[in-house]
Amino acid sequence: MRFLIVRTDIRAAADADLAAAFAGGGRLRDEQTTPEPRRQTLHAEDREAALTLARALAAVGAVRSGRQRVKVLPINDPPGR
């Protein structure tokens, strides 16, 4: 299975938005409708390689300070592969 490694910016949330999402039982952030802005993307052919790349990206100062995050997403192979 292939993997996509993504480094994204974290969107700040206002206190009012946080309180409204918590009170209404909804989500504050919904990646399917409004994904976070991407900073960097990488591909890996297996899980071990993907996690190694993610650890390397996690060493970036903006990730360590909490302004960005690293995500590892599995990619389904197309049929016939």
Notes on the structure:
The chain is of the alpha+beta class. The chain is built from three helices and three strands. The chain has a three-stranded antiparallel β-sheet with strand order 2-1-3. The longest helix has 12 residues, at 47-58. The mean pLDDT is 86.
Indicate the low-confidence ranges by residue numbers.
none
Sketch the major β-sheet.
3 strands, antiparallel
What's the helical proportion of residues?
25-40%
Mean pLDDT, all residues: 86
- Given the helix and strand composition, which structural class is it? alpha+beta
Task: Output the strand order for the largest sheet.
Answer: 2-1-3
Distance between the first and last residues' Cα: 11 Å
Number of strands: 3
Tell me, briefly, the overall form. Answer: flat
Order of helices and strands: EHEHHE
Oligomer: single chain
Number of helices: 3
Q: Radius of gyration over alpha carbons?
A: 15 Å
Strand % is: 25-35%
